[in-house]
Amino acid sequence: MINTNEIKLLRDGLEKLEAGFVDLPDFVPDFDEDALARVIDEVATRMQDNYPYHHPQYVGQMLKPPHPVARIAYAMSLWINPNNHALDGGRASSAMENECIVDLAAMFGWQKPLGHLTGGGTMANLEALWVAGRLHPGKSIIGSEQAHYTHSRISEVLGLAFSPVSVLPNGRMDIAAITDLLRQGNVGTIVVTMGSTGLGAVDPLPEILELRKKYDFRIHADAAYGGYFGLSSLLTNEAAEAYACLRDVDSIVIDPHKHGLQPYGCGSVLFKDASIGRIYKHDSPYTYFSSAELHLGEISLECSRPGAAAVALWATQRLLPLDKGGEFAASLDNCLTAARDFYSRLDTSNFFTPLMPPELDIVVYAVNAATTTQASDHARKLFDDAANQGLHLALIELPIAVAVHWLPDVKVDSTSITCLRSVLMKPEHKAWIERIVEMLDECAERLTTL
Ligand SMILES: *Cc1c(COP(=O)(O)O)cnc(C)c1O
């Protein structure tokens, strides 16, 4: 888990950083090292109480360890502790944030975007939907029933109606259902999920863009989890076409703390039309003294934000540029390959049945049983047993209509079904699939005795 070279790189970086301030008289912050050591020891003990999120045998939720370069850059910047709310608070880190935004937006073909980092995807989606609501006041927001659960809550905060759209068995929004809602009128914005959190499904963006020829609405792409996959060369044709259309949406959310190798606290929101900056306009009597330039605090709903997050992301994008065919893209390809390998092994398994083939790196699978109630019961038991063996999975509760398509031989005796879910987002997963499947089979064999 710990590579001591990381600590050395941090030390070297800090020495170089300190050299930038030698003109000032020296001072040493005073603290009691023994007391500090005792507390740090306690913290280490407390932190042992965690699932092994960093380990390849954690194949549950969307958790991916930060890249060492992000960890080092983040930690190093804490000695300065810049605040990216304004240039006064973090000159270098604000500039780095703007450069990161330019590179993120370039992935989608946008040259002059407006955007900034946020605490996470939820805050970023809130900003995008706030802008959408300002431009289409009183009109409703529609999005997939598999969209992130925060969209309906964000809409509530904004005082806008949210209507969920049903999904087809492949997990994508049903175009016929969208068209019905558009015909009823009063739709201001469609949220298109590029990689749903539960199923990894990519909504049919090309067809939704077609609908814009007839109806007037804004399109917001929630690509918090899936945004980076546009760089991959292994997408299915359908997913690749949807990603190619991202240049035509109005706003995009992408979370560097999901697939972008960043520590938590790093989401982002991008707007294609920079003139929406006017919507953020406000006067503050106590910030923004040093420059006539646009400050990040003037285009963000949050005020104080960690400059460290921008420094870490900048370092990561410097080391691993967001290029098609580059090293970063290759590591995403590994995740897709791992998911497809996992899916095909489950597809020939005696114990499990996978649902839809993975579009990205999430695989959802049922435990074989005679009825949907038994399958749900097995999934929950297996989840606990696997965790006891050091294999960490996730569970997902799905509408029966989505699941039965993939489980034609199972008798339906419930309105929903609990399945197992694995996000294969660590670069190491590709090499660990065989072991993961072996462990799963062992758990399934034990099921009758549990
Ligand atoms: C994770 C996720 C979010 C929420 O992002 P946070 O960073 O957890 O706030 C929103 N939408 C999608 C599709 C996500 O996967």
Structural features:
450 residues, Aspartate Aminotransferase, domain 2, Aspartate Aminotransferase, domain 1, 7-stranded mixed β-sheet, 4-stranded antiparallel β-sheet, 14 helices, 40% helix, binds pyridoxal-5'-phosphate
Overall geometry: globular
CATH class of the largest domain: Alpha Beta
The overall average pLDDT, rounded, is 95
Rg (C-alpha, Å): 24 Å
**Annotated CATH homologous superfamily of the largest domain:** Type I PLP-dependent aspartate aminotransferase-like (Major domain)
**Span between termini:** 33 Å
Q: What does the main sheet amount to?
A: 7 strands, mixed
Number of H/I helices: 14
The tally of strands reads 11
Range of strand content? 5-15%
| String of helices and strands | HHHHEHEHEHEHEHEEHHEEHEHEH
Helix content: 40-55%
Walk me through this protein's architecture:
- By secondary structure, the protein is α/β, with parallel strands linked by helices.
- It folds into two domains: 91-319, Type I PLP-dependent aspartate aminotransferase-like (Major domain) (Aspartate Aminotransferase, domain 2); 327-449, Aspartate Aminotransferase, domain 1, CATH 3.90.1150.
- It is 40% helix and 13% strand.
- It contains 14 helices and eleven strands.
- The protein has helices at residues 4-19, 33-47, 68-77, 91-106, 121-135, 150-158, 175-184, 205-211, 237-244, 307-319, 327-347, 372-388, 400-404, 429-446, and strands at 114-118, 140-144, 162-165, 187-193, 218-222, 251-253, 267-271, 352-354, 362-367, 394-399, 416-423.
- The strands form two sheets. The protein has a seven-stranded mixed beta sheet, with helices on both faces. Strands 8-9-11-10 form a four-stranded antiparallel beta sheet.
- Strand 4, helix 8 and strand 5 form a beta-alpha-beta unit.
- The protein is globular, with a radius of gyration of 24 Å.
- The model is unreliable at 287-292 (pLDDT under 50).
- The structure holds pyridoxal-5'-phosphate.
- Residues 120-122, 125, 148, 150, 193, 197, 222, 224-225, 255, 258, 267 line the site of pyridoxal-5'-phosphate (PLP).
- Pyridoxal-5'-phosphate is lined by residues 120-122, 125, 148, 150, 193, 197, 222, 224-225, 255, 258, 267.
